Structures are given as C-alpha cells and as structure tokens.
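Researcher: We plan to redesign the surface later, but first we want a full-length starting point. Tokens attached.
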C-alpha cells in the first residue's frame, strides 16, 4: 500500500530548491525527506510525505485526521508507528 504520512519538519539543509532536504519526525521516527516539491517548507512545518518526498505543507488538524485514519486502517501498525502515534500528537512529537 502506498501512503503519505504527516511528519514534523525538524531541520532544512540546502539552498538549491531542487536539492533541499530536511529531517522530519514521524511519531518519534526521524527520516530524511526531499523538499523539492515544498520549497517554502521550514522547520516546525508539518509536511505530507510519500516515498521520502514532501508533497505538501499541511496544518495540524489535517495531520491529526490523517494519523487517526491511518491508525483505523492499521497502516501505522504495519509501519511500526502505532504505539507512538496513539500516545503522541504528531505535531508535538518533538
């Protein structure tokens, strides 16, 4: 299954928009994401990420709805994120 998951952007590196990357927190799991499609993304923003690429900036309400839906369908458990997601609000997991 292909899913886009919300993450909180912790840091951003790079000046060239095509090569900017950031570190994002997904329920306590930190990963590097490509920011080429979200050139305005800054640390503290919530981003929707699929296959390591940030697709869009989202608000806290949208992130929470997405996490709730992913938990309902069992997708967070498949990714090993369910226990953390149940205990932690995605925007406050830092």
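Model: Full-length starting sequence:
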């Amino acid at each position: 299954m292909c899913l886009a998951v919300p993450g909180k952007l912790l840091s951003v590196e790079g000046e060239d928009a095509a090569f900017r990357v950031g570190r994002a927190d997904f329920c306590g799991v930190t990963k590097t994401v490509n920011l080429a499609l979200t050139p305005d993304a800054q640390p503290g923003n919530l981003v929707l990420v699929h296959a390591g690429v940030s697709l869009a900036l989202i608000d806290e309400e949208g992130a929470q709805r997405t996490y709730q839906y992913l938990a309902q369908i069992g997708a967070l458990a498949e990714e090993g994120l369910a226990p953390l997601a149940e205990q932690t609000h995605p925007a406050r997991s830092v």
